[in-house]
């Protein structure tokens, strides 16, 4: 089968491609061809055993979708997106990439016709929800985004459901929890510290904590996120029914619980590298975010995440640090 | 103030314009100018005391929004839409009018700039909800449309909220119940019989009832719908908060209750004009629709509908039949 990944140069995209190549199959079907798209040329994976084509193109350019769908991939992982902060800073760019780009992809699939009906896995986000929210957020909670990014993802979910209902494609949307621990450098995202307070101490570096320890949030590891995507690609669409987007499982943890998990994995010395520096702006942004979910549908459909924040920390140590802890 | 009505030639549009001209004001502000848009030339109301411009243009044509917004109307009633059945039959036309047309209007307002921030009243629909649904449907129920029309209205709601949050306009969406009794000829809409079984007997004509008497649905009169629109134009946006679209109040009534209301207003002879002719297709479509709401927010904000189906029948007799009952 032919698999297309948009946004393949992003953190999750790279890990997804590595897993697809390592397994060589999606479910029982062998992967025979990979197309990797991003706005920058995705790195062609070394030693891939199947043909890999890389395409650098702006998904907001109407010609891009036609180019991506021309070869009629069997599975499309649609990860390409402008992130939350940028979509808020640049209104037009956010709508052009996150809404028009997604719609162009769905339209190109519809117009391909001749029985073409690929599985489309759409990476949505818990940013489709905004306060006030019940805790945990139940299935069938109204989408009440408080950002343009969340609005664009919510619209993508609605389009995915309608195109699926009309029989143009077979879509599954997954609302990803905050991915933690994100590898790489610290960034300026409001959510950055959730990863930073684990990643930096494990690398022997000081981290800043801008909120109080009772702040609670909803997490899954990069490894779990890749697992969600792969599972969404192979699961039986009939079992999902008309509501095509699912809250993904995750771990609800307070910052205090994050820190205690870090202590259990790496000791007091690691925890001592966390410096408190309250930031009311970040605290206010995060107060609007969902804190926990009751993802009963996804669990019943076989989606699995970590079950404790300590598991999330250990996944990071294994996957990013080669199992080595700071000394 | 300058008021723009899109879809002004439609049943609700005509009644809204008549009320605006009769009252001469929206809240405390005098109406000094009216612009009436539709895809066919709206009839210019006779004897209007303020300048009335009529514009016949396709709202799906990108040039139309620019033409409508150029004069910077203070209030925009956005009623123009392809109806449910047509949006389902013609996928591209539905998206072009109901999604692209709405977005073009919002974009034109955003791009006008220079502090322009009109009140935009968006006519949404209970079609944004699809079964299975709790009864009554609570506030904050997830939008789960089962038609392309419902999907397009749900997307319009999301855009309205984001454009409002960003300060580009001041939007209020209202989810209209099924409007009953619709005046005019019988039509082929699946919901047509809800009006037909009242309207036809009151006109001395036979009506067909395709479903059983225990079917329950959510209604408001055309008069109430116009009242919702006017109230949405004048209410305090701050009081609405970030969730800009509201379930409108209405009357939950079974078909049996409709018929009993008809009997109380017009007697057994009218009821005898209803002929039962079960139609499983219509029954199946209607089974997916919401049956009752708990519109607490709208009621708290001062929206008012009829409180019994008998009131709805009497509104029809007063507004459409000059108070005359069949003899």
**From the alpha-carbon coordinates, what is the Rg of chain A to the nearest angstrom?**
19 Å
CATH class designation of the domain at 2-177 and 221-247 in chain A: Alpha Beta
Query: What does the largest sheet of chain A look like?
Result: 7 strands, parallel
How many strands appear in the DSSP assignment of chain A? 14
Helix-and-strand structural type of chain A = alpha/beta
- Write down the overall geometry of chain A: globular
Shape-level CATH architecture of the domain at 2-177 and 221-247 in chain A: 3-Layer(aba) Sandwich
Q: Percent helix among the residues of chain A? A: 40-55%
Overall mean pLDDT score of chain A?
95
The most extensive interface, with participating residues per chain, is: A-B, 22 and 22 residues
CATH superfamily of the domain at 2-177 and 221-247 in chain A: NAD(P)-binding Rossmann-like Domain
Percent of residues in β-strands of chain A: 15-25%
Low-confidence stretches of chain A: none
Strand order of the largest sheet of chain A: 5-4-1-6-7-8-12
């Amino acid at each position: 089968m032919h698999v297309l990944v948009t946004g393949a140069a992003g953190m999750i995209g790279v890990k997804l491609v590595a897993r697809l190549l390592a397994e060589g199959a999606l479910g029982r079907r062998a992967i025979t061809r990979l197309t990797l798209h991003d706005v920058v040329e995705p790195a062609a994976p070394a030693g891939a055993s199947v043909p890999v084509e890389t395409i650098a193109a702006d998904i907001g350019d109407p010609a891009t979708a036609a180019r991506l769908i021309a070869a009629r991939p069997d599975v499309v992982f649609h990860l390409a997106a402008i992130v939350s902060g940028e979509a808020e800073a640049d209104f037009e760019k956010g709508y052009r990439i996150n809404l028009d780009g997604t719609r162009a992809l769905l339209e190109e699939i519809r117009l391909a016709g001749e029985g073409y009906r690929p599985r489309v896995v759409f990476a949505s986000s818990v940013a489709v929800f905004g306060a006030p929210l019940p805790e945990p957020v139940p299935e069938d909670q109204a989408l009440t985004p408080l950002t343009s990014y969340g609005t664009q993802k919510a619209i993508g979910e609605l389009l995915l459901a309608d195109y699926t209902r009309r029989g143009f494609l077979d879509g599954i949307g997954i609302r990803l929890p905050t991915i933690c621990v994100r590898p790489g450098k610290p960034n300026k995202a409001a959510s950055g510290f959730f990863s930073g307070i684990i990643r930096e101490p494990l690398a022997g570096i000081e981290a800043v904590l801008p909120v109080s320890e009772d702040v609670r949030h909803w997490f899954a590891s990069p490894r779990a996120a890749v697992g969600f995507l792969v599972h969404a690609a192979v699961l039986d669409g009939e079992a999902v029914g008309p509501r095509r987007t699912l809250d993904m499982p995750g771990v609800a943890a307070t910052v205090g619980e994050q820190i205690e998990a870090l202590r259990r994995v790496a000791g007091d010395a690691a925890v001592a590298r966390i410096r408190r520096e309250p930031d009311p702006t970040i605290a206010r942004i995060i107060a609007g975010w969902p804190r926990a979910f009751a993802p009963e549908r996804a669990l019943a459909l076989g989606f699995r995440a970590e079950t404790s924040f300590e598991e999330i920390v250990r996944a990071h140590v294994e996957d990013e640090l080669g199992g080595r802890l700071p000394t």
